[in-house]
Amino acid sequence: MSRNDFLISDSTNQEDVRGDHENINKPYYDTYDRCPNHDVKIILGDFNAKVGRERIFDRTVGQFSLHETTSNNGFRLIDFSAARNMVVSSTRFRHLDIHKATWLSPDQKTRNQIDHVVIDGRHASSVMDVRTFRGVNIDSDHYLVAAKIRMRLCRAKNVRPITQRKLDVTRLRSQRTATAYSTHLSELLHQPTLLPVDAGGLWAHISHSMRAAAETAIGFKRPPTRNQWYDEECRVAASAKNAACRRTLQSGATRATCERYREKRKEERRLFRRKKREKEKRECEELEVLQDRNDARKFYQQVNRLTQGFKTGDENGNLVTDTQCTLRLWRAHFSKLLAGDDGTNPAIGGSSPIPPIDDNVDIPLPSHDEVRVAIMRLKNNKAAGADGLPAELFKAGGEELIRCMHQLFCKIWLEESMPNDWNLSVLCPHIKSYRAPGKSTIDKIFTTIQRLRWLGHVVRMDEESPAQKVFEARVDYGRRRRGRPNLRWKDQVKQDLNLLGISNWRRRELPSLPYS
Q1: pLDDT at 373 over 50
Q2: Whose CA is closest to 17, among 45, 43, 47, 44?
Q3: Are residues 26 and 82 in the same domain?
Q4: pTM attached to this predicted model
Q5: What does DSSP say about strands 40-46 and 5-11: parallel, antiparallel, or unpaired?
């Protein structure tokens, strides 16, 4: 049985103490109750609760708390933990008082233990230690609380996949780099080695030569760097602030020492904000340069990176957050998408039937010019296959590569067998993450959009395509096995269309196909 770990963060506001606790904490309780019973549940954060050492709470609270008596919020925390068979692990380990306090008051004298780590009693023995680290500067009046947890999990063999490094094909835009690549590739293809006779060996020789020439002349892509605005000036400011923070932790720290630390922290924050604004300004200037150069691909990549997240906007570009408005926008979008321009599908209804091919006709071998035209028609910026060779490498290979590829195609044509590498496919599985019951509205809308997009692809396919046949197939007998979905994919799509108010979509999209 698989087991998950749930970490629930809590932050209690001081004003909540005077409010209605049951109504305020109801969503928090519901979140915990939705977690499966057999999973490990850990709650940590600022509870604003002082837990005492009363013997009556021994089953829930340890005997090494910083405080002697329990506050009102502490009683609420104990009631919550006892009702759900949980343990306040942050009070179960013997430490010095300075390693128990988690919050420092503004007077720089009073220290309380109000941040806790709570775990269900079934896995309480997994927590090895909980203590406070005062020396870590996190720009807060709370100290960092660390818990050492050792989980007893099943042993599984995780095979790390071997990923190929991507070649930086954008460097081929430089004429010097493209010439160096084609020259080196021609030298490798011209090496006086015994050329293989079969098509598989010839393709292995070509692909190996292309890979070696690309690694030498082009190189690989560099991994993206995070926080490019964080430079040496930011490091110096952060070091000065951390040094001032360490001086405030000493026993002889004065009020002036604390004031100097506050000033250093303010200077660091002002510097960070200025660096971030300068970085945003540079990104905007880069977008303008890309727009002037008409580099649409990099322009939209930069825009998508800066505007990450699922957003819905109207025709004027305004952000739409209301659920009903979002549904109306998607209804209009898919009504236009499924209706088509003139109500007909030229790929199916307007094209003439393909005449059958006579096998007795002698078709000549592909010519050298046909191979050259086919290679030059390859689209750029497409993902490479299992061999890791993008289309840009073939287009920049030169005449020697075209000659070798023509020789390879002629061998395949005559032998009627392809290399084994061409039968390989790269599968990218979409791992569905666990979601608690009750999806959000955005998740439901996004799932509906994905189904309707695939529906648009299927209805535009040829009637002989496998997807179209499966979509139109009918099962006269049989039953669903236990655990299978109650609805078919087609039934779910119909529900999505009814939700958006779209009707007669099949008749408007494909009027020439008979449907029963």
Answers
A1: yes
A2: 47
A3: yes
A4: 0.51
A5: parallel
Residues 145/44, Cβ–Cβ less than 8 Å: yes
Residue 292, amino acid: D
Domain of 33, CATH number, reads 3.60.10.10
Tokens 């993008």, located at residue? 390
Cα–Cα distances in angstroms (integers) from residue 4 to residues 36, 61, 146, 379, in the given order? 9, 25, 21, 44
Q: How far apart are CA 393 and CA 396, in angstroms?
A: 5
pLDDT grade for 148, boundaries at 50, 70 and 90? very high
Strand partners, 42: 7, 119
Note whether 131 and 143 are within 8 A (CB): no
* Structural tokens at position 212: 């070696």
Are residues 53 and 170 located together in one domain of the fold? Answer: no
What is the extent of the structural domain holding 45?
A: 5-149
Of 45, 52, 35, nearest in space to 123 by CA: 35
CA distance 118 to 127: 10
Between CA 143 and CA 127 the distance in angstroms is 20
Q: Residue type for 445, please?
A: I
pLDDT at 354 over 70: no
